[in-house]
Design a protein that fits this description.
The complex is a heterodimer of chains A (about 90) and B (about 90). Chain A is built from 2 helices and no strands. Chain A is an all-alpha fold. In chain A, helix 1 packs across helix 2. The longest helix of chain A has about 35 residues. Chain B is mostly helical. Helices cover about 80% and strands about 0% of the residues of chain B. Chain B is flat, with a radius of gyration of 21 Å. Classes of the chains: A mainly alpha (about 90), B mainly alpha (about 90). Chains A and B meet through helix 1 and helix 2 of A and helix 1 and helix 2 of B. Chain B: Heterohexamer. Chain B: It comes from Photinus pyralis.
Amino acid sequence: MTDFGDSFAPPPPQGKDDKELQEFLFVEKQKAQFNAQIHEFNDFCWDKCVEKPGSKLDSKTETCLTNCVDRFIDVSLLITNRFAQLLQKSGGV
Amino acid sequence: MDSLPSGLSNTQKDELMDQVKQQIAVANAQELLTKMTEKCFKKCISKPGTSLDNSEQKCIAMCMDRYMDSWNLVSRTYGVRIQKERNRMS
């Protein structure tokens, strides 16, 4: 999921005709992935943070939501790094 | 990615781009709608009766607004974080 590395690399150069379209599609794909990720975050952070929906999001809920997103990314990075270490130690790829 | 059909005129290219953008926007709205319906049904309808009563309808309306607030907040938070991670890596 959260792929901060490669997904931000520029698209590989292509035939001059297609270049504009390639770039356009690359950007749109990035935006779509970003949006899909937000849907996913909002899905489970809503379950974790929002009790009864009121007339506005109170500050406690807002803090919970921002923390939820940031901590999820922390966990994702932590697990990715540790998993890579485990693979290295076991002599895997 | 497969190579794209070459020799598109500029108008065709613009049309194609517009179509892609529109389809993405529709898909995005559908996803939001599906999620919102599911989440707000869960929050507001504890025991489904013979019709949606007034308080349930009010709850649904409020829930929709809050779900969108939440979506926007999550979007901002995620955007800020991505920016931070990119700066850290470059």
